[in-house]
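Let's inspect one such protein example.
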Amino acid sequence: MATWKDPQIAGVRALLASRQADPNGPQPSLAERRAAMDAVGEMGSLPTHCFHEPATVGGVKCERVSPEGALPGRTILYLHGGGYTQGSPRSHPPMVARIAEAARAQAVVADYRLGPEHRFPAAVDDAVAVYRALLASGVEAGKLIVAGDSAGGGLAMALALALKAAELAQPAGYFVISPWADLTQSGASYRTKADTDPSITKAGLDQMAQAYLGGLDPRDPLASPVFGDFEGVAPVLIQTGSEETLLSDSVTLADVLAHARVEVRLEVWPEMIHVFHAWGAVLNAARRAIRLAGIWMDERYA
Protein backbone atom coordinates (compact mmCIF):
# COMPACT_ATOMS: atom_id res chain seq x y z
CA MET A 1 0.00 0.00 0.00
CA ALA A 2 1.35 3.40 -1.03
CA THR A 3 2.29 5.97 1.58
CA TRP A 4 2.36 9.71 0.93
CA LYS A 5 5.08 12.17 1.91
CA ASP A 6 2.70 15.10 1.57
CA PRO A 7 0.36 15.00 4.62
CA GLN A 8 -2.07 17.35 2.91
CA ILE A 9 -2.74 15.01 -0.02
CA ALA A 10 -3.09 12.16 2.48
CA GLY A 11 -5.81 14.19 4.18
CA VAL A 12 -7.59 14.85 0.88
CA ARG A 13 -7.48 11.14 0.13
CA ALA A 14 -9.00 10.35 3.52
CA LEU A 15 -11.82 12.79 2.86
CA LEU A 16 -12.49 11.31 -0.57
CA ALA A 17 -12.53 7.81 0.91
CA SER A 18 -15.13 8.88 3.46
CA ARG A 19 -17.39 10.13 0.68
CA GLN A 20 -17.31 6.94 -1.39
CA ALA A 21 -20.71 5.36 -1.93
CA ASP A 22 -21.22 1.78 -0.80
CA PRO A 23 -20.44 -0.31 -3.91
CA ASN A 24 -23.02 -2.85 -2.78
CA GLY A 25 -25.72 -0.28 -2.14
CA PRO A 26 -27.95 1.65 -4.57
CA GLN A 27 -25.91 3.85 -6.89
CA PRO A 28 -26.79 7.53 -7.32
CA SER A 29 -28.63 8.55 -10.46
CA LEU A 30 -27.09 10.91 -13.00
CA ALA A 31 -29.29 13.72 -11.68
CA GLU A 32 -28.05 13.04 -8.15
CA ARG A 33 -24.42 12.97 -9.28
CA ARG A 34 -24.87 16.27 -11.10
CA ALA A 35 -26.48 17.88 -8.05
CA ALA A 36 -23.71 16.58 -5.78
CA MET A 37 -20.94 17.91 -8.03
CA ASP A 38 -22.57 21.34 -8.21
CA ALA A 39 -23.08 21.35 -4.44
CA VAL A 40 -19.37 20.78 -3.80
CA GLY A 41 -18.48 23.78 -5.94
CA GLU A 42 -21.12 25.99 -4.38
CA MET A 43 -19.79 25.23 -0.87
CA GLY A 44 -16.39 26.71 -1.69
CA SER A 45 -15.58 30.38 -1.17
CA LEU A 46 -14.34 32.76 -3.82
CA PRO A 47 -11.18 34.79 -3.27
CA THR A 48 -11.76 38.16 -1.65
CA HIS A 49 -13.14 40.81 -4.04
CA CYS A 50 -13.97 38.29 -6.76
CA PHE A 51 -17.42 38.55 -8.33
CA HIS A 52 -19.47 36.26 -10.53
CA GLU A 53 -22.61 36.80 -12.57
CA PRO A 54 -24.62 34.86 -15.15
CA ALA A 55 -24.21 35.69 -18.84
CA THR A 56 -25.14 34.35 -22.24
CA VAL A 57 -22.31 34.25 -24.77
CA GLY A 58 -22.84 32.98 -28.30
CA GLY A 59 -26.21 31.58 -27.27
CA VAL A 60 -24.59 29.48 -24.53
CA LYS A 61 -25.29 30.04 -20.85
CA CYS A 62 -22.11 31.05 -19.04
CA GLU A 63 -20.85 32.46 -15.76
CA ARG A 64 -18.49 35.43 -15.63
CA VAL A 65 -15.90 35.35 -12.84
CA SER A 66 -14.15 38.67 -12.30
CA PRO A 67 -11.32 39.10 -9.77
CA GLU A 68 -10.70 42.64 -8.63
CA GLY A 69 -7.18 42.69 -10.09
CA ALA A 70 -8.14 41.62 -13.63
CA LEU A 71 -6.35 43.62 -16.30
CA PRO A 72 -8.47 45.18 -19.08
CA GLY A 73 -9.16 42.84 -21.99
CA ARG A 74 -7.64 39.73 -20.42
CA THR A 75 -10.06 36.81 -20.67
CA ILE A 76 -10.06 33.09 -19.91
CA LEU A 77 -12.60 30.84 -21.61
CA TYR A 78 -12.97 28.06 -19.04
CA LEU A 79 -14.39 24.63 -19.91
CA HIS A 80 -15.36 22.64 -16.83
CA GLY A 81 -14.80 18.93 -16.22
CA GLY A 82 -17.32 16.23 -15.39
CA GLY A 83 -16.89 13.55 -18.02
CA TYR A 84 -19.11 15.34 -20.54
CA THR A 85 -22.12 14.21 -18.47
CA GLN A 86 -22.00 16.43 -15.38
CA GLY A 87 -20.39 19.58 -14.05
CA SER A 88 -21.35 23.19 -14.72
CA PRO A 89 -20.22 26.72 -13.87
CA ARG A 90 -21.73 26.04 -10.42
CA SER A 91 -19.38 23.13 -9.78
CA HIS A 92 -16.18 25.11 -10.35
CA PRO A 93 -16.32 28.71 -8.98
CA PRO A 94 -13.55 28.49 -6.32
CA MET A 95 -10.97 26.85 -8.61
CA VAL A 96 -11.81 29.02 -11.61
CA ALA A 97 -11.66 32.14 -9.43
CA ARG A 98 -8.19 31.20 -8.17
CA ILE A 99 -7.01 30.60 -11.75
CA ALA A 100 -8.49 33.89 -12.95
CA GLU A 101 -6.92 35.74 -10.02
CA ALA A 102 -3.51 34.19 -10.77
CA ALA A 103 -3.75 35.24 -14.43
CA ARG A 104 -5.23 38.66 -13.58
CA ALA A 105 -8.01 37.94 -16.04
CA GLN A 106 -11.79 37.68 -16.26
CA ALA A 107 -13.03 34.12 -16.74
CA VAL A 108 -16.05 33.05 -18.77
CA VAL A 109 -17.18 29.56 -17.73
CA ALA A 110 -19.25 27.89 -20.45
CA ASP A 111 -22.27 25.82 -19.44
CA TYR A 112 -21.91 23.63 -22.52
CA ARG A 113 -24.42 20.90 -23.32
CA LEU A 114 -23.91 17.49 -21.72
CA GLY A 115 -24.55 13.88 -22.68
CA PRO A 116 -26.49 11.73 -22.85
CA GLU A 117 -29.15 14.36 -23.61
CA HIS A 118 -26.82 16.14 -26.04
CA ARG A 119 -24.34 13.86 -27.74
CA PHE A 120 -20.98 14.59 -29.31
CA PRO A 121 -20.14 17.03 -30.86
CA ALA A 122 -22.59 19.31 -28.99
CA ALA A 123 -19.96 20.28 -26.40
CA VAL A 124 -17.46 21.18 -29.13
CA ASP A 125 -20.07 23.21 -31.00
CA ASP A 126 -20.87 25.18 -27.85
CA ALA A 127 -17.20 25.85 -27.12
CA VAL A 128 -16.71 27.17 -30.66
CA ALA A 129 -19.83 29.33 -30.36
CA VAL A 130 -18.60 30.95 -27.14
CA TYR A 131 -15.11 31.49 -28.57
CA ARG A 132 -16.50 33.11 -31.72
CA ALA A 133 -18.78 35.36 -29.67
CA LEU A 134 -15.92 36.49 -27.44
CA LEU A 135 -13.91 37.52 -30.49
CA ALA A 136 -16.96 39.23 -31.98
CA SER A 137 -17.48 41.16 -28.73
CA GLY A 138 -14.03 42.70 -29.02
CA VAL A 139 -11.89 40.30 -27.02
CA GLU A 140 -8.55 40.04 -28.81
CA ALA A 141 -7.27 36.53 -29.54
CA GLY A 142 -3.92 37.55 -28.06
CA LYS A 143 -5.63 38.38 -24.76
CA LEU A 144 -7.68 35.18 -24.62
CA ILE A 145 -6.60 31.89 -23.05
CA VAL A 146 -8.66 28.69 -23.18
CA ALA A 147 -8.46 26.58 -20.04
CA GLY A 148 -10.19 23.48 -18.75
CA ASP A 149 -9.95 20.47 -16.48
CA SER A 150 -10.55 16.76 -17.11
CA ALA A 151 -13.17 16.49 -19.88
CA GLY A 152 -12.96 20.28 -20.12
CA GLY A 153 -9.23 19.96 -20.75
CA GLY A 154 -9.92 17.52 -23.56
CA LEU A 155 -12.60 19.87 -24.86
CA ALA A 156 -10.10 22.74 -24.84
CA MET A 157 -7.81 20.68 -27.07
CA ALA A 158 -10.75 19.73 -29.31
CA LEU A 159 -11.52 23.44 -29.58
CA ALA A 160 -7.93 24.05 -30.71
CA LEU A 161 -8.45 21.59 -33.56
CA ALA A 162 -11.86 23.05 -34.44
CA LEU A 163 -10.45 26.59 -34.55
CA LYS A 164 -7.64 25.40 -36.79
CA ALA A 165 -10.10 23.70 -39.16
CA ALA A 166 -12.28 26.82 -39.28
CA GLU A 167 -9.21 29.03 -39.84
CA LEU A 168 -10.07 31.14 -36.81
CA ALA A 169 -7.42 33.01 -34.84
CA GLN A 170 -5.78 30.91 -32.17
CA PRO A 171 -5.89 32.19 -28.59
CA ALA A 172 -2.79 33.20 -26.66
CA GLY A 173 -2.56 29.69 -25.23
CA TYR A 174 -4.26 26.68 -23.71
CA PHE A 175 -3.99 25.69 -20.05
CA VAL A 176 -5.32 22.20 -19.38
CA ILE A 177 -5.53 20.32 -16.08
CA SER A 178 -5.63 16.51 -16.04
CA PRO A 179 -7.11 16.46 -19.56
CA TRP A 180 -9.29 13.56 -20.66
CA ALA A 181 -7.90 13.53 -24.18
CA ASP A 182 -8.30 9.86 -25.18
CA LEU A 183 -11.81 8.46 -24.94
CA THR A 184 -10.54 5.04 -26.04
CA GLN A 185 -9.00 4.75 -22.53
CA SER A 186 -5.96 3.02 -24.04
CA GLY A 187 -3.08 4.50 -22.03
CA ALA A 188 -0.97 2.46 -19.61
CA SER A 189 -2.01 4.54 -16.59
CA TYR A 190 -5.58 3.26 -16.84
CA ARG A 191 -4.03 0.04 -15.52
CA THR A 192 -0.96 1.18 -13.56
CA LYS A 193 -2.73 3.92 -11.57
CA ALA A 194 -5.98 2.07 -10.95
CA ASP A 195 -5.05 1.44 -7.30
CA THR A 196 -3.78 4.95 -6.51
CA ASP A 197 -6.47 7.10 -8.16
CA PRO A 198 -9.11 7.79 -5.48
CA SER A 199 -11.73 9.35 -7.73
CA ILE A 200 -11.49 8.16 -11.36
CA THR A 201 -11.93 4.63 -12.71
CA LYS A 202 -11.71 3.22 -16.21
CA ALA A 203 -15.15 1.64 -15.79
CA GLY A 204 -16.65 5.00 -14.91
CA LEU A 205 -14.91 6.70 -17.81
CA ASP A 206 -16.14 4.00 -20.20
CA GLN A 207 -19.71 4.74 -19.11
CA MET A 208 -19.29 8.48 -19.56
CA ALA A 209 -17.64 8.06 -22.95
CA GLN A 210 -20.57 5.94 -24.10
CA ALA A 211 -23.07 8.49 -22.76
CA TYR A 212 -21.29 11.30 -24.61
CA LEU A 213 -20.46 9.52 -27.87
CA GLY A 214 -23.59 7.42 -28.21
CA GLY A 215 -21.73 4.81 -30.24
CA LEU A 216 -19.74 7.23 -32.44
CA ASP A 217 -16.04 6.67 -33.05
CA PRO A 218 -13.98 7.53 -29.94
CA ARG A 219 -10.96 8.05 -32.20
CA ASP A 220 -12.53 11.14 -33.78
CA PRO A 221 -9.98 13.88 -32.94
CA LEU A 222 -12.74 16.20 -31.70
CA ALA A 223 -13.63 13.52 -29.14
CA SER A 224 -10.10 12.26 -28.47
CA PRO A 225 -7.67 15.04 -29.35
CA VAL A 226 -4.62 12.78 -29.00
CA PHE A 227 -5.52 11.58 -32.51
CA GLY A 228 -5.49 15.11 -33.97
CA ASP A 229 -3.03 17.21 -35.96
CA PHE A 230 -2.07 20.20 -33.84
CA GLU A 231 0.44 21.84 -36.15
CA GLY A 232 0.01 25.61 -35.91
CA VAL A 233 -1.99 25.79 -32.68
CA ALA A 234 -1.12 28.05 -29.75
CA PRO A 235 1.21 27.07 -26.86
CA VAL A 236 -0.10 24.58 -24.31
CA LEU A 237 0.51 24.12 -20.58
CA ILE A 238 -0.50 20.73 -19.16
CA GLN A 239 -0.59 20.10 -15.41
CA THR A 240 -1.43 16.65 -14.08
CA GLY A 241 -0.94 14.46 -11.03
CA SER A 242 1.36 11.46 -10.91
CA GLU A 243 -1.31 9.28 -9.27
CA GLU A 244 -4.22 9.61 -11.66
CA THR A 245 -5.79 7.24 -14.12
CA LEU A 246 -5.60 9.94 -16.81
CA LEU A 247 -1.83 10.43 -16.48
CA SER A 248 -1.23 8.73 -19.83
CA ASP A 249 -3.58 11.14 -21.56
CA SER A 250 -1.41 14.09 -20.51
CA VAL A 251 1.84 12.36 -21.44
CA THR A 252 0.51 11.25 -24.83
CA LEU A 253 -0.99 14.66 -25.53
CA ALA A 254 2.34 16.35 -24.78
CA ASP A 255 4.07 13.92 -27.14
CA VAL A 256 1.55 14.58 -29.93
CA LEU A 257 1.90 18.34 -29.47
CA ALA A 258 5.69 18.17 -29.45
CA HIS A 259 5.73 16.14 -32.68
CA ALA A 260 3.49 18.83 -34.22
CA ARG A 261 6.08 21.46 -33.21
CA VAL A 262 3.74 23.10 -30.73
CA GLU A 263 5.29 24.85 -27.73
CA VAL A 264 4.19 22.59 -24.88
CA ARG A 265 5.03 22.35 -21.21
CA LEU A 266 4.06 19.22 -19.27
CA GLU A 267 4.12 19.30 -15.46
CA VAL A 268 3.56 16.04 -13.59
CA TRP A 269 3.07 16.86 -9.91
CA PRO A 270 4.31 14.06 -7.60
CA GLU A 271 1.70 12.35 -5.40
CA MET A 272 -1.08 14.55 -6.77
CA ILE A 273 -4.47 13.26 -7.89
CA HIS A 274 -6.99 14.10 -10.59
CA VAL A 275 -7.61 17.88 -10.81
CA PHE A 276 -5.82 18.45 -7.51
CA HIS A 277 -6.18 22.19 -8.19
CA ALA A 278 -9.76 21.92 -6.91
CA TRP A 279 -8.36 21.44 -3.39
CA GLY A 280 -6.67 24.84 -3.26
CA ALA A 281 -8.24 25.65 0.10
CA VAL A 282 -6.28 22.88 1.83
CA LEU A 283 -3.51 21.83 -0.55
CA ASN A 284 -0.32 23.86 -0.91
CA ALA A 285 0.58 22.01 -4.11
CA ALA A 286 -2.68 23.15 -5.69
CA ARG A 287 -1.96 26.77 -4.86
CA ARG A 288 1.61 26.50 -6.19
CA ALA A 289 0.42 24.89 -9.42
CA ILE A 290 -2.14 27.64 -9.98
CA ARG A 291 0.43 30.33 -9.20
CA LEU A 292 2.85 28.87 -11.76
CA ALA A 293 0.05 28.56 -14.30
CA GLY A 294 -0.74 32.22 -13.67
CA ILE A 295 2.86 33.16 -14.47
CA TRP A 296 2.70 31.07 -17.66
CA MET A 297 -0.56 32.73 -18.74
CA ASP A 298 0.80 36.17 -17.89
CA GLU A 299 3.71 35.51 -20.25
CA ARG A 300 1.37 34.39 -23.03
CA TYR A 301 -0.96 37.38 -22.99
CA ALA A 302 -0.09 39.92 -25.66
In short: The longest helix spans residues 284-300. The first strand starts at residue 50 and ends at 57. The mean pLDDT is 95. The radius of gyration is 18 Å.
